[in-house]
Structures are given as structure tokens and as C-alpha cells.
Amino acid sequence: MLDKVLKVGLLFDFYGALLTEKQQQCLEMHYLHDLSLSEIASEFNVSRQAVHDILKRAEQILIEYEARLKLVERYQQEQQSIQEAYDLVGALPAELRNIPEIQSVRQKLATLIDKSEEV
Amino acid sequence: MLDKVLKVGLLFDFYGALLTEKQQQCLEMHYLHDLSLSEIASEFNVSRQAVHDILKRAEQILIEYEARLKLVERYQQEQQSIQEAYDLVGALPAELRNIPEIQSVRQKLATLIDKSEEV
Fold it and tell me: Which of B75, B106, B84 lies closest to A115 in space, CA to CA?
């Protein structure tokens, strides 16, 4: 389930703006604010099944965009390379790691990695 | 003009897969292979005006996707941070820059920057 939340969250972060307002709201309520389908249904005054269908459809749309554009995949590959660069700096002997210029490189890379964790 | 070619090229690289086959072909012929509108027109056996309209429409669609998703903007900001990290490593004194582990960091970052130049 956590995997699914992360996956939908990342897809939503990239392509969410292409969904309808209602689809965006349902995804946010369910995946970001952790509301159950029944809770969302009562919020919108529709059936639980209707919420289920909206979520399924929205997820499907996000998956289809990624299948065509592969921008999340590209982003994740880039993140992996940044992480590798970060790890290389982190693995330097302490006397090198403590040099201010090298600390700056590390901090800069950390900022780039942190972005993905905000998702 | 070069700016426009780069801008359309980058947008096309990100969102091109959302265009029709014909739109993609026209953009590639014009911006990648540098064919004139007349040359593309004779290739497809349509009027020069028709090619002009296809290109305008395709560019407009790409611009609209970016206005909603801002993924090119995000990518460019990330590229700038990677470039800054790369420059920080490059500005290290030679005795540090020549340490193999630091060379590896620099190479890893160079790979990430090169990607944008392939576009």
C-alpha cells in the first residue's frame, strides 16, 4: 500500500494538473490526507462507489501520461545519479569532507535529493 | 531564432509524445532537420500554409502543457543546481580536484548536465 501511495503521489505531483478539479480533490483527500472512500463520499454527497470510480479513473489517467511521457522515470534516474554523486562525496575521508568547498558541494546535492522526498 | 529552436526543442522533448504523429513529424522536420515550411509541404503534398498551421498549433499545445505542468521549468532549475555543484567541484584547488574520488563526483555531475545538451 505504501508503494502505491508513493507511486500515485509521484505521478500526481508530475501530472496532477492535467486532471479535473474533482479528480485532483479526491486523490488529495485519499492519498495525501488519508481519508477513506466513505469519508470522501460523504464530503461530496455521492456514493462510495462513485468515489472509487473517480479515483480509479484518475489513477489510470496518471498512469497513461507516464506511459507516454516517462518523465517520472527520467526524474527518478536523475535522482539516482544525484544520490550516487552525494554518496561519493559522503564516502570521502573526513579531512576532505570537512573542507568548506566540499561541504558546499554536498549541501547543494542534498538540496536536489530532498526535493524528491517532499513529494 | 536559436532561442525559439531551443525552447521548442525542449518542450518537444518533454511533451512531444502527446502530439499527433503528423504534428511530431512536422516539428522534427522543421526544428531538428531544419527543413523549410515549403520543403515539408512538398513532402506531405499539402500547402505551405497548412504546414505553418500545423506547426503553430503543435507549438501552442506544447506551450499549454508547460503552462499547466511546469516540468521543463522544474527541470531547468534542477539543471542549474547541478551546474552549480559541478562548478563548485571545478573550482577546487588542483590537488583536491585530482583526487580520484572527487574526479568521479565531477564526472557523475557532468553526465547529468550533458543530458540537457542532447536536447
Answer: B75
| Grid cell digits, residue B73 | 521549468
CATH architecture of B2-69: Orthogonal Bundle (1.10)
What span, in angstroms and rounded, lies between the C-alpha atoms of B24 and B19? 6
Please list the helix, strand and coil fractions of chain B in percent, rounded to the nearest 5, in that order.
85, 0, 15
ipTM field: 0.84
Domain ranges across chain A: 2-69, 73-118
Query: Which helix or strand (DSSP H or E) is residue B52 part of?
Result: helix B48-69
CB contact under 8 A, B78 and A115: yes
Closest CA to B105 of A100, A97, A86, A99: A86
Pair B14, B72: CB distance under 8 Å: yes
- Among A residues 48-87, those touching chain B with beta carbons less than 8 Å apart: 68-69, 71, 78, 81-82, 84-85
Interface test with chain A among B15, B69, B75, by most A beta carbons within 10 Å: B69
pTM of whole model > 0.90? Answer: no
Q: Residues in chain A with pLDDT < 70?
A: 1-2, 115-119
pLDDT recorded at residue A118: 44
Round to whole Å and give the CA distance between B30 and B44.
Answer: 13
CA distance A40 to A52: 10
